[in-house]
Amino acid sequence: MTGVPVTTDSSPVPAAPGRRVPALLKSPTGLAGLILICLLAILSVLSFTNSLPYDPLTQDAPSSLLAPSAQHWFGTDQFGRDVFSRVAAGVANSALIAVVAVAFATVIGTLGGLVAGFYRGAADSVIGGITNVLFAFPPLLLALALASVFNRNWFTIAVAIAVVYVPIFIRVTRGPVLSLREIDYVRAATSTGQSRVMIMFRHVLPNITSIIIVQVALSLSWAVLTEASLSFLGLGTPPPAPSLGSMIFEARTLVYVAPWTMIAPGVVVVLLVVGLNLLGDGLRDGFDPRNRGKR
What we know:
There is one protein chain. By secondary structure, the protein is mostly helical. Helices cover about 65% and strands about 0% of the residues. Helix 8 (about 210-230) packs parallel to helix 9 (about 245-250). It is elongated, with a radius of gyration of 22 Å. The two termini are about 35 Å apart. Mean pLDDT is about 85; it is low at about 10-20.
């Protein structure tokens, strides 16, 4: 993990992003990403509703290292656990952690960017200083440090990942807010005596929603990859809960004997990350005002 993707277009965009969502279906990349995410979401639903063909935690020694078949679609691992069921549970756990982490980062980072960009002055200096400090650390190393401090469970891991992504949302939000605060309708709202808080949430925030949505989709993909990396390094979701990263780690010694134990979780991680990135690209194209005439 060498970096985190950040939307580069900091210019204000029109409000009412819902009008741009149908354009996602006309984008080949966005549609492909949406299909991939829907398929993987089905796996998560199967896990959350206990509808998997096997219990992902139940061991069955006589059935260990069985090759993929009609009975075990992705084969079994060294403990006889069904790999398909464990992959589905791993997707659900990764999705839960990624969604909670990005939700925290979105709320805190967006509020920080709004305050820094709209109030400027001391608020901008303080928030900007905190952002620069967090940016000074490589994302994965910062997540590793935070995850190693807390008692490991899915929530603390989500918080550790959220801290990494807060400065991303602050920077993505602050740029457009600096431009929007000088626009005529914001100046008019100020002259009528409306409070700054009301102006931020009523006039400024709706006009940067599309930028935030795109950044959420991109950040989700990297949050999934960060969680898998932490699990691979032994600082992710603690066992026996299935995790895609820990499954890959456990299968490293079986790659020549039972390659399916590594291929299945590895391919799912790739599909999940690629799907979210394609979805983010499709959303970016759909929300881009320059594409109006192309839709």
